[in-house]
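Deliverable D4.2, example record:
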Amino acid sequence: MLYLVSAELIENSFPGEAFPQVFKQVIRPSLESLAKMVDEKKLTGGVLATQRAGAFIVEAQSNEEVDRMFASLPFWGMLKWTVTPLISVRAAMERDQKAADAMK
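Output generated by the structure prediction step:
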């Protein structure tokens, strides 16, 4: 199954002066984990340019697998996550064709 996963930093999740330490202990390890998942072809996507947000397409066997993937990241609690199941373009085309045929 395919999923669209987006994440956005929760405002004020850490004070600005704490950034160097938070980057070292939380952000960098999270980004390294995401990069490894990309390398392993578990997901594709990236960080949105000029934003503290990201978007990914994930292939997983279940909702629980997607949950485990992202909840394992150190910055999981600092981000607002949105997970949307996707259907293939072909499945959408077949669905719409059936609807169009039924309207004839």
